[in-house]
Amino acid sequence: MESSREQTIETLLVSVNRLIRTAVQSTGNTTSPAVWRTLGILETDQPLRLGELARASRVSQPTMTRLIGGMLADGLVARSVDPDDSRGQLIEITPAGAEHLTMWRATLTRTVGPLFADLDDDQWDVLHEASALIASRTRTEITA
Questions:
Q1: How far is it, in rounded angstroms, from Cα 109 to Cα 132?
Q2: Among positive and negative, which fits the CA dihedral 111, 29, 97, 54?
Q3: Dihedral angle at the C-alpha atoms of 94, 30, 64, 39, nearest 10 degrees?
Q4: CATH code for the domain of 92
Q5: Are 23 and 108 contacting, i.e. CB atoms less than 8 angstroms apart?
Q6: Which of 4, 90, 118, 136 lies in the 20 to 30 Å Cα band around 60?
Q7: pTM over 0.85
C-alpha cells in the first residue's frame, strides 16, 4: 500500500513539473522562472527579508539580491526597513507585481486549458477535488 502511495506522489510531482514546463515553453515568455517563483512566495509569505526569500526560493543570497534588484527596477517588489532590525530590509510584492503574477497565471491557464478540454463533468470534479486538496496541503516554508 505504501509503495502505491509513494508512486502516486511521484507521479503527481513529475506530472505537475511537466505540465508547468509545457505551459511555460508554449507561452514563449522569457522571464526567469525565479521571478515568478519569488512573486508567488511573496504573494503568500510577505514581507520577507532577503535571506529568507532566498531560502524559500532555493537560490543563493547573491542571486536573490540580483533578482530583487531587477524586480525593484520593474516595480514588481518594494523594499522597506525591517522595523525589528533597522539593518535589515523587507521585500514585499507591489500591486503591479501582484497584477503581473495574476496575468502570468492566466496565460499559463489558457495555455494548458486545451489539454483538459475533453474532460467530462465527473473528471472535472475529481480534478477540482484533487487541486483543492493539494492547495490545502502546500505552502511556502521559511526555514532558518
A1: 16
A2: positive
A3: 30
A4: 1.10.10.10
A5: yes
A6: 136
A7: no
Cα–Cα distances in angstroms (integers) from residue 35 to residues 44, 53, 114, 126, in the given order: 15, 12, 26, 31
* Domain membership flag for residue 88: yes
Helix 33-45 to helix 61-73 angle (10° resolution) is 90
Examine residue 4 and state whether it is found in any structural domain, yes or no. no
pLDDT, tens only, 69-126: 999 999 999 999 988 888 889 999 999 999 999 999 999 999 999 999 999 999 999 9
Q: How many domains does the chain have?
A: 1
Structural domain boundaries, residue 65: 28-103
pLDDT of residue 1: 52
The angle, 0 to 180 degrees and rounded to 10, between the axes of the packed helices 61-73 and 50-57 is 110
C-alpha cell recorded at residue 92: 514585499
Residue 115 maps to a domain: no
Residues whose CB is less than 8 angstroms from the CB of residue 102 and which lie 6 or more positions away in sequence, other chains included: none
